[in-house]
Design a protein that fits this description.
Layout lengths: L17 E3 L3 E2 L2 H11 L4 H4 L1 H4 L8 E2 L1 H9 L7 H6 L2 E9 L3 E2 L3 E14 L4 E11 L5 E12 L7
């Protein structure tokens, strides 16, 4: 049974604060789930003749797939962030190393900036995001931007 974590408000966050996700395995089930969401079977993973002609073969989880999975929350995101955000706004990633099938990927979100929008009681929050595998190797880094409620509003 999942317990809901305490809501985060942007006004409580501190630059440099980190949130780590739960490790997730990049297995066939994850790729198939992603394919169902996008309607794209990603032949690099499922067509043996195509895969045999690629540098990494069938093993590569190419950048678009992994970054899209991240945006959808299919790779690890802190549950507290996921439960508290109003909206996902933007992301940008650079891949440093190929992610492979059966890698276990962990993300870390480090708060870089908070831009208050007080007229709407919201803030645009930017996190530096890193993805690493079970060997501690950096797979990707970049940023995510989210909207959060700025602070708790009291209704009398």
């Amino acid at each position: 049974m999942k317990t809901k974590s305490r809501q985060l408000f942007a006004s409580d966050m501190q630059v440099g604060q980190t949130f780590s996700g739960v490790p997730r395995s990049l297995d066939d089930a994850a790729f198939q789930k992603f394919s169902q969401v996008t309607g794209d079977d990603h032949p690099i993973h499922y067509d043996a003749s195509y895969a045999s002609r690629t540098r990494f073969g069938r093993q590569v989880a190419h950048g678009l797939l992994v970054s899209s999975m991240t945006a959808l929350g299919a790779t690890a995101m802190s549950a507290q962030i996921e439960d508290s955000m109003i909206a996902f706004v933007e992301q940008g990633f650079k891949f440093r190393k190929a992610a492979l099938l059966d890698d276990v990927v962990t993300s870390q979100f480090t708060l870089e900036s908070v831009e208050p929008k007080p007229e709407r009681n919201m803030a645009l929050v930017t996190f530096k995001v890193t993805l690493a595998n079970q060997h501690g190797e950096l797979l990707a880094d970049g940023f995510h931007k989210y909207l959060f409620q700025l602070n708790q509003t009291h209704v009398a």
